[in-house]
Design brief:
The structure holds two protein chains of two kinds. Chain A is an all-alpha fold. Chain A has helices spanning 2-40, 49-66, 69-75, 82-88, 95-108, 119-142, 149-154, 165-169, 229-244, and strands at residues 177-178, 181-182. In chain B, the strands form four sheets. In chain B, strands 2-5-8-1-9 form a five-stranded parallel sheet. In chain B, strands 3-4 form a two-stranded antiparallel ribbon. A two-stranded antiparallel sheet of chain B has the order 6-7. By secondary structure, chain B is an alpha/beta fold. Classes of the chains: A mainly alpha, B alpha/beta.
């Protein structure tokens, strides 16, 4: 009797493992599907974890609720109708039940864990995982996207265009004119042009000409003040009187 | 020898071979009829009784007497007639001389055997039928204020002739309900009939029948039958089938009683044991539904008018409940 209870517990444990494996595969497929969509619309890719986790929990609970010993029997004709008969009569004890339990224990040794899983389904799901993974890698590498949701969120004005004069300078009427001709302003982000082909090693150069014999420092004329001398005296006396008080 | 036989019976895996040998041994005398033999064995294993419906000349007496020989059981035949009295079946007190005194001594009737063939039970009067049915149900006979238990195992195979119903007293439904199975015997196939002719038109050579099982073995097998476990969903299906007979009012006027549920599960257990299995299968329930239910349901007039018979209705019911 205890053997049967132990065997049924073991079966349930194996079923649980196979349910978790299959549900995990399904959740990976969901994750990759959502990831693919999020990549195509350039949105936060980590959000794909949420539906995947929800699907994993839901499938594990649902499949364990639907678990029946009959499904084990259907996949193993050797123990058809024996397993659930033994389970339903596990608390009984008579000659025939004992003989049934002994025969069932012997036959259960021939039942493998792989028989509890639908291998075809698992193969198809693995194939799906591979295909989705390749698609995601390709899209990521080529930066292909159908829609830029991320860009839309951070730059909500869709009318902004690069290099628009009216945005920088205002309306057309505000444009400066020289005479009758409007000033044509070009904003070049690069204030210089570098021609890579012309870049070469620095060439030595000879100084030509002679140094002057005398080098004298002269005050720069722009610094000379043109304030009249009478006003300079007034100002000088004002600051002196301030300092005395 | 008895211990060896008991050990053989205890090995359930070998039971299939044992019963196959029983069928082969009966087959030395009876040609074909394998399903009939199986159903009779099922009724015996269930410690119940069976009603057999067949046309004359199909070897009913020979079949049951041969089975009794193979099972090493005492066999008696009672031919029912309208003038058959209950005492002709149960026995009566007779006056005997004992030491110069007249004493009443009980003279047991033919019912005091292990296997009884009550031929054409519908020809006996209701009073005589009730005496037989009491023995069948209670496994005892009451005469005056004395009760005589019948030897175990005890099995009655009652037969009814489906033709020539004039002057008969058909068993009421309440009485037929007490039979576990109603076994239908059909005509043999062409090849079987040819074999019968070959066997029984040559010089008379009685086949030597060996007893293969004893009374004690049979009693143990009857005990084992009740021990065969059944899964809850299969048990539920059996009860669903029987209760459905009471709800299908368009076709079935009177459905089967809970006795049919008990009978169906018990008969399925016996069938499983005959097959050497230690569990009841769905196939057992479906196979035993016919002999268990066919005498317990009464069809509506409309169903009969449409030409449906009981077996067809049972088949439709099984398909509906699948």
């Amino acid at each position: 009797m205890n053997e049967i209870f132990g065997m049924i517990r073991e079966i349930k444990s194996e079923i649980f493992k196979s349910v978790v494996l299959e549900s995990f595969l399904d959740s990976i497929l969901v994750f990759l599907g959502f990831l693919l969509v999020l990549r195509l619309v350039n949105f936060y890719p980590l959000l794909a974890i949420i539906p995947a986790a929800a699907v994993l929990i839901y499938l594990v609970i649902k499949r364990m609720k639907l678990f029946r010993l009959k499904s084990v029997e259907d996949r193993n004709p050797l123990i058809r109708e024996m397993l659930r008969t033994a389970a339903d009569n596990a608390d009984g004890d008579n000659f025939v039940i004992r003989a049934l339990n002994t025969e069932l224990m012997q036959k259960m040794r021939q039942v493998t864990s792989s028989s509890l899983m639908k291998l075809n389904h698992i193969m198809y799901k693995l194939g799906g995982v591979v295909v989705l993974s390749i698609l995601i890698i390709y899209i990521s590498a080529t930066q292909f996207m159908l829609l830029d949701l991320n860009g839309l969120i951070h730059n909500p004005n869709p009318n902004v265009k690069e290099g628009s004069l009216s945005d920088i300078l205002g309306d057309k009427q505000a444009l400066p004119k020289i005479g009758n001709n409007p000033v044509d302003i070009k904003l070049n982000p690069l204030s210089y042009e570098v021609n890579i082909d012309k870049i070469q090693q620095a060439q030595p150069k000879e100084f030509k000409g002679q140094f002057p014999d005398e080098v004298v420092a002269v005050q720069e004329k722009s610094y000379e003040e043109n304030i009249p001398i009478e006003q300079q005296i007034i100002i000088k006396n004002y600051f002196a009187s301030i300092s005395q008080t | 020898m008895a211990e060896k036989e008991l050990e053989k019976v205890k090995n359930i895996d070998k039971l299939k071979d044992t019963f196959k040998n029983v069928q082969d041994e009966v087959g030395k005398v009876i040609v074909g009829q394998n399903e009939i033999i199986e159903q009779i064995l099922i009724a015996i294993l269930c410690d119940a009784n069976a009603l057999l419906e067949s046309y004359p000349g199909l070897g009913k007496t020979l079949t049951i007497s041969t089975i009794a020989k193979v099972l090493d059981l005492k066999f008696k035949r009672i031919q029912s007639t309208p003038d058959l009295m209950p005492s002709d079946i149960t026995g009566t007190y007779v006056i005997e001389d004992s030491n110069g005194k007249k004493v009443f001594k009980f003279q047991p009737g033919p019912i005091f055997a292990n296997v009884i063939l009550a031929d054409e039970i519908n020809r006996a009067t209701p009073k005589t039928q009730s005496a037989m049915l009491e023995a069948m149900q209670e496994k005892q006979v009451t005469l005056g204020n004395q009760t005589f238990p019948l030897e175990r195992p005890f099995f009655i195979l009652a037969t009814q002739n489906p033709i020539e119903q004039e002057g008969t007293y058909p068993l009421p439904e309440a009485q037929t309900d007490r039979f576990l199975l109603k076994i239908k015997v059909d005509y043999p196939t062409y090849d079987e009939e040819m074999e019968i002719v070959n066997r029984y038109t040559k010089e008379v050579v009685s086949a030597e029948i060996k007893p293969l099982l004893s009374k004690n073995s049979l009693l143990m097998l009857q005990n084992l039958t009740r021990q065969v476990p059944i899964a809850n969903d299969i048990k539920k299906r059996a009860v669903d089938i029987v209760t459905a007979t009471r709800r299908w009012k368009d076709v079935i006027e009177y459905g089967a009683s809970p006795r049919a549920s008990i009978g169906l599960i018990l008969a399925s257990k016996a069938r499983a044991l005959l097959d050497g299995r230690k569990f009841v299968s769905q196939a057992d329930i479906e196979a035993m539904a016919y002999p268990v239910l066919r005498h317990r349901i009464i069809l509506t007039f409309e169903a009969e008018r449409q030409g449906k018979d009981v077996d067809t209705v049972i088949k439709e019911l099984l398909e509906k409940k699948r």
